[in-house]
Every structure is written in structure tokens, then in C-alpha cells.
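Possible regression after last week's pipeline update?

I re-ran a chain I had predicted before the update to compare outputs. Posting the input and the new output here so someone can diff against the archived version. Not blocking, just want to make sure nothing changed silently.
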Amino acid sequence: QVQLVESGGGLVQAGGSLRLSCKVSGMIFSIINMAWYRQAPGKQRELVAHISGGGNTNYADSVKGRFAISRDNAKNTVYLQMNSLKPEDTAVYYCNSGIRDHSGYNDYWGQGTQVTVSS
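New output (post-update):
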């Protein structure tokens, strides 16, 4: 069974930094792409950052220049380095991954980790 487990969330003051991690475990053939989404109270889930299998990245305009997504293929782990955090970054952050496993290509989600930025 494939699982995505996030860690690294917490409470930080505005201007601070956090690094989120998401590790993929289980019976997989390959990880195609990985991404971070977030959902603030009363808002829709939105894409924050995406990284392809080849390492190409793209970001939401609201986080460009502040956040950086990276992946360690040997560890099946994706990271989100978040700098210069703002109160509007407060949300539950979810890891997402497109994975090829025994049943083909599937989309998996983590359980979410809370990030709270105080002003």
C-alpha cells in the first residue's frame, strides 16, 4: 500500500522559515511527479509547487522567490523549503504524487500538515 507521509509543519512568525518533507513508501515502480498543495480555511485547495521527474519546477505566483521544491529520488522524498513566510501562507499543506505502481498510474495524497504563520 502506497503512503505519503508529511512532516515539518508548525507555528512560525512572519518572516520565518519552515521545511516540509513528504516521504513516499510502499510498493511502487516509479514516482512520476510530486507536488505540494495547500488549503486555507474557507478556500479551495491550490497548487503551491510542482516538480517533474526530470526536475523541472513551477510555482504559484504567490510563492515565487520564497518557496523552493526539491526531491531526493533515492529517498522517495520531496521537500518544500518555505522562506519569508507570511500570515497568508497559513494553511494545511498536502503532498501529492503521481506514482506508477502495480495497478498502473495513480494519484496519491498525504494526510496534510498544518502551517501557521503569526503576524
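Follow-up from reviewer: compared with the archived run. The chain has a mean pLDDT of 96. Marking as no regression found.
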